[in-house]
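Board notes (copied after class):
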Amino acid sequence: MFDDVGAGVSPGLGARVGTPALVRGKGLEWREPCGVTLGQSIEEVTASLGAPLTVIDLGSKKIYKYRDMKVIFKDGKVSDVG
C-alpha cells in the first residue's frame, strides 16, 4: 500500500529514515525503523536490527533484506532504506 511513499526522494546525510505505519487505535503515524540512519555502518545496523534474512553482495554495494525493509550499504555505510 505504501510501497511508493518517498520513492525517488533521498533525505540528506544524517536524516532519519522512516515509514508510515498503521497503529491500532491511532490511525496512520510516521514510525522510524529501529533508528536506522543514513551513514551508519553495517555493524551499527546489525546491532540495532539483528542479522538480516538475506545479504546480497555486489562488491562495494550490499543489500541487507529484513522481514519488512531492506537496507542498502555503499562502501560499508547506509545509503538508502526501503
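Comment from the instructor: The beta strands are 19-23, 27-31, 54-58, 61-65, 70-74, 77-81. The radius of gyration is 13 Å.
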